[in-house]
């Protein structure tokens, strides 16, 4: 609205100013509105919604069914999609079933806090008629947040999980609780007739035994804990980039942090692959916030990470350190792959421009991630691989880098991978700017970043390569028998590999 020096200012129906100027008088303001209309600001188009709720409903486009159902067109296409979702819920309900009450929980898809959820599609899996009279747990719903996207998981974490923040570069900073590293002394494997023969037990072995019954006690504890929650996160994903030896894994967890971590670390299925996922080959029940019961046989602390190879299940109680899931699945691969005459390797792996593949073996913290992430070579993987008759394949879909003293200058690829989607565990950041101080060890020295492998620009997707040409043993043994850098011939390399020549690097634990 504009007025000349001493003229009148009037508004016309379009909101434009008009002026009349009677002589010797101060201008008076009048409005002329020949259309008896409200004033509109024509500079910005208006929204189509009539109410705020309608406006909000416009914001989110409904996800289309993951893929069109082959051969079925038009309105009938929705039915098989519904059927598929029902089967998916059935399968999740079966995963979460209590084995003593012999019935699965009432599961329903979606966030319990979501207003848009009108009449949820409920599914209850009846393995058999309940053997024991129903308890309160059979009356409640368990909401399933299935394969959420990183953005959705960020929202869940920030809304509901204390200690979750977005850093200045967009990563999700989180805390893993009391445990900031793996707990190998609390990791147990069920010893039964088969594994009793197949695994290495006793002095010197890392395998600590438990019996089947104790596993079931802990499993029930974890399942009951998860079912007592309003919602659980379920990830259906893959391990191993070799399509012939791919393993389907399901991770049931209570935290968005755990779900995003596994989203990054396992291979992410395409919508088409998810549609045909079916029954998982292996399931993790992560009830890490809930302790195990010290009165239970074999339990020596409130933490227990239990592997049952016959049932193809793993139960986590009493530790929220996400690395347990990743390394737990690696233990499973160490069991399954050699049975197929495939060598599972705790190594980083990269490939030169000429296709020359190198393996980097070493314990935690010896530099597998740092050295395999080489700007002049293609990254195949940083930690877990399989070696078959035809070549190597990465088991995972992401990397898990140490970040203590991380610098942009020394490790620019890892530095730049710490962006939206990356989980940053146990780091300290500046309260206002949210800039991470990678030198700060206040929470732990074992600070970590978990990111999808494609965050490294030189990643080779799919993560497979030909037979390795060079093998590097990162012994990290400053006081050993070999000089700091030693070139070994084939026989010497084999000898030191078999004997596990290394040093104990006390970084993580
Ligand atoms: N010369 C070096 N080579 C590799 N890593 C180094 C070197 N010097 C320091 N480091 C540090 O050592 C740590 C190695 O960790 P990482 O590569 O994640 O180990 P791993 O993958 O074997 O568990 C990183 O924090 C890295 O910055
Ligand atoms: C996952 C771990 O192993 P690595 O250091 O080999 O990544 C860990 O030690 O927590």
UniProtKB/TrEMBL annotation:
Family under the similarity heading: Belongs to the phosphoenolpyruvate carboxykinase (ATP) family.
Pathway membership: Carbohydrate biosynthesis; gluconeogenesis
Catalysis: reaction(s): oxaloacetate + ATP = phosphoenolpyruvate + ADP + CO2
UniProt GO cellular component terms: cytosol
Species for this entry: Populus deltoides (Eastern poplar)
Region (Disordered): 1-23, 97-126
Pfam families cross-referenced by the UniProt entry: PEPCK_ATP
GO biological process: gluconeogenesis
Protein name as annotated: phosphoenolpyruvate carboxykinase (ATP)
Keywords: ATP-binding, Cytoplasm, Decarboxylase, Gluconeogenesis, Lyase, Nucleotide-binding
């Amino acid at each position: 609205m504009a007025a000349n020096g001493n003229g009148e200012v009037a508004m016309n129906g379009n909101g434009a100013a008009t002026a009349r100027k009677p002589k010797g008088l101060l201008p008076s303001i009048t409005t002329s509105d020949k259309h008896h209309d409200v004033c509109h600001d024509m500079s910005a188009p208006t929204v189509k919604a009539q109410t705020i709720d309608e406006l909000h409903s416009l914001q989110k486009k409904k996800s289309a069914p993951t893929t069109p159902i082959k051969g079925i067109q038009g309105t009938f296409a929705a039915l098989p999609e519904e059927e598929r979702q029902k089967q998916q819920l059935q399968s999740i309900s079966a995963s979460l079933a209590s084995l003593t009450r012999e019935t699965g929980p009432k599961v329903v898809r979606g966030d319990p806090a979501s207003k848009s959820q009108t009449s949820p599609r409920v599914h209850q899996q009846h393995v058999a008629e309940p053997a024991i009279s129903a308890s309160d747990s059979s009356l409640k719903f368990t909401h399933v947040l299935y394969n959420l996207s990183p953005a959705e998981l960020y929202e869940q974490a920030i809304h509901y999980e204390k200690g979750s923040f977005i850093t200045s570069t967009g990563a999700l900073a989180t805390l893993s609780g009391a445990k900031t590293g793996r707990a190998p002394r609390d990791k147990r494997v069920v010893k039964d007739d088969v594994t009793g023969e197949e695994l290495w037990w006793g002095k010197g072995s890392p395998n600590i035994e438990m019996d089947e019954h104790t596993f079931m006690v802990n499993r029930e504890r974890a399942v009951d804990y998860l079912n007592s929650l309003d919602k659980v996160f379920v990830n259906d994903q893959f391990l191993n980039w070799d399509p012939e030896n791919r393993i389907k894994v399901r991770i049931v967890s209570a935290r968005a942090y755990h779900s995003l971590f596994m989203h990054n670390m396992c291979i992410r299925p395409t919508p088409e692959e998810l549609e045909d996922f079916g029954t998982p080959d292996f399931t993790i029940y992560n009830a890490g916030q809930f302790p195990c019961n010290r009165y239970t046989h074999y339990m020596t602390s409130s933490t227990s990470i239990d592997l049952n190879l016959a049932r193809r299940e793993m139960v986590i109680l009493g530790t929220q350190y996400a690395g347990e899931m990743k390394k737990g699945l690696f233990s499973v691969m160490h069991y399954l792959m050699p049975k197929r005459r495939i060598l599972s390797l705790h190594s980083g792996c990269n490939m030169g421009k000429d296709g020359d593949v190198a393996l980097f073996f070493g314990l935690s913290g010896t530099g597998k991630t740092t050295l395999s992430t080489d700007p002049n070579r293609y990254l195949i993987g940083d930690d877990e691989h399989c070696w078959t008759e035809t070549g190597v394949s990465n088991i995972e879909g992401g990397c898990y880098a140490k970040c203590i003293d991380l610098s942009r200058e020394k490790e620019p690829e890892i530095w730049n991978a710490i962006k939206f989607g990356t989980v940053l565990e146990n780091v300290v950041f500046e309260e206002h700017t949210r800039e991470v101080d990678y030198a700060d060890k206040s929470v732990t020295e074992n600070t970590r970043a978990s990111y999808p492998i494609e965050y490294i620009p030189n990643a080779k997707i799919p993560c497979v390569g030909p037979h390795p040409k060079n093998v590097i043993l990162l012994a990290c043994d400053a006081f050993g028998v070999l000089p700091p850098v030693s070139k070994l011939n084939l026989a010497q390399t084999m000898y030191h590999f078999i004997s596990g020549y290394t040093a104990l690097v006390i970084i993580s634990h």
